[in-house]
Every structure is written in structure tokens, then in C-alpha cells.
Write a structure and sequence with these properties.
Layout (H helix, E strand, L loop, with lengths): L1 H12 L11 H30 L5 H11 L7 H12 L4 H11 L3 H10 L11 E6 L2 H5 L2 H12 L12 E6 L11 E3 L2 E3 L4 H15 L2 H4 L1
Parallel strand pairs: 1-2
Antiparallel strand pairs: 1-3, 3-4
Helix pairs in contact: 3-5, 4-5, 8-9
């Protein structure tokens, strides 16, 4: 009986095996934290560089002047700040986002996460005319797929694209808040309900004719 008790005691207090692959819980937590931080830094650098490559750079003095006017600080509401910045520049330049991140102490990756969640924000300049087609359930069951295809083909743009001449931007959205009028298309804040491919083509033809360069109109 004494021998059994001694064996049980020694087994209970004996340290676990030690080897080159043994990682303590603390070391594992620190390793995970380092990987997370490195991943976040890479994401911030990649998103910032991609946005910078696609859009013209706004002078730093213009960014600073607008953010000073808004009064951006660590206590600022991020959504409200982004709305004000987009209202000032027409979109959200990479330089402005970096400065907002610095002033609010919010990681750039988190800011880009907010931008990707809310359809109201744009990180690229928009065309003079924006065409939005609803792809929601009510519109879908009433033929919005063909309406969207018509818009894409007539404008020569895919969802989310802006024409090279900056005349048109085309996008689809999950809901436009007018399901009773489905299928719905909004062009420059004007709602077009009960839309059909033929009717949309007529509307776009008029818009394209109005926006055509002087030489093409003739």
C-alpha cells in the first residue's frame, strides 16, 4: 500500500515530457498574438496600397484641412467622420483614411472593414451619374436579373465599375427600400419602378445621348 501511494504521488507531481516541440499555453498565446498583429499589418499595407494604386492622391494639406474642420479625434464617431470626408471629396481617398486612422487610433484594417460593410461608402471616384439596380428578393422574383443584365450591357460596365470617362458608375444593391415598385432602378436619386429591360434601355439611351461629347451628338 505504501508503494502504491508513493507511485501515485510521484506520477502526480512529475513534470510532463520536455522536448523541442513542447509549447506552453503562454508561449502559444504570444505566438498567436504575434501572428494576428503581423496579419493585420499586412492587411493594412495591402488595402492601403491597392486603394492608392486605383485612385488619384489627394494633397495632404487638403486632407488635414478637412479633418481639422470636422474635428476628428479619438472620441469621434467613425461613421459620421467617413460620411463627412466622403461628402467633402466625393469619395474616401486613401490618404484621408490613413489620417483618420492616425487621429482616431482605429486600425486601418478595421476602417476598411467598415467601408466594405456599408454600401454608402466609396474608395474610388464616382461617375457623374450613378445607376443602381436592386437585386433583392422582391425585385429578383419580378425579373431584376434581366434588368441588371440590360444595364450592364448598355453601359459596358460590370457591377461596381465606373466608366473611364467618369460619366457613369454602375452597381447593384441588396435593397432600395421600394419593394412595392419592384423591379426598381435608381438613377441619380430618381426612382424608376416596375422596370423592364426595354424601358431601362430607353432611359439609358436618353441619358447616354445627353452625356455624349459634342462631336458624337452631332
Amino acid at each position: 500500500m505504501l508503494l502504491r501511494s508513493r507511485i501515485a504521488r510521484d506520477t502526480a507531481i512529475a513534470p510532463g515530457p520536455v522536448g523541442p516541440y513542447t509549447i506552453s499555453p503562454l508561449e502559444n498565446a504570444l505566438k498567436f498574438a504575434r501572428r494576428t498583429a503581423e496579419k493585420r499589418e499586412r492587411l493594412e499595407a495591402r488595402t492601403a496600397n491597392n486603394a492608392k494604386a486605383r485612385t488619384p492622391e489627394i494633397p495632404g494639406k487638403d486632407v488635414a484641412a478637412l479633418l481639422d474642420e470636422i474635428g476628428v479625434s479619438r472620441e469621434s464617431n467613425l461613421i459620421a467622420v467617413l460620411q463627412r470626408v466622403q461628402g467633402g471629396f466625393g469619395y474616401l481617398p486613401a490618404a484621408a483614411l490613413r489620417e483618420v486612422s492616425r487621429r482616431t487610433r482605429i486600425p486601418l484594417s478595421r476602417i476598411y472593414g467598415v467601408l466594405s460593410f456599408y454600401a454608402q461608402f466609396y474608395t474610388e471616384p464616382r461617375g457623374r451619374h450613378t445607376i443602381r439596380c436592386c437585386r433583392g428578393t422582391a425585385c429578383h422574383v419580378r425579373g431584376s436579373k434581366r434588368v441588371i443584365q440590360t444595364a450592364s450591357q448598355r453601359l459596358g460596365l460590370e457591377d461596381g465599375q465606373t466608366s473611364d470617362d467618369m460619366r457613369f458608375s454602375f452597381e447593384t444593391v441588396a435593397c432600395l427600400g421600394a419593394c412595392a415598385l419592384s423591379p426598381v432602378v435608381v438613377i441619380d436619386r430618381k426612382y424608376y419602378g416596375k422596370m423592364t429591360p426595354r424601358r431601362l434601355e430607353q432611359v439609358l439611351n436618353r441619358l447616354l445621348a445627353e452625356e455624349a461629347p459634342a462631336g458624337e451628338k452631332a
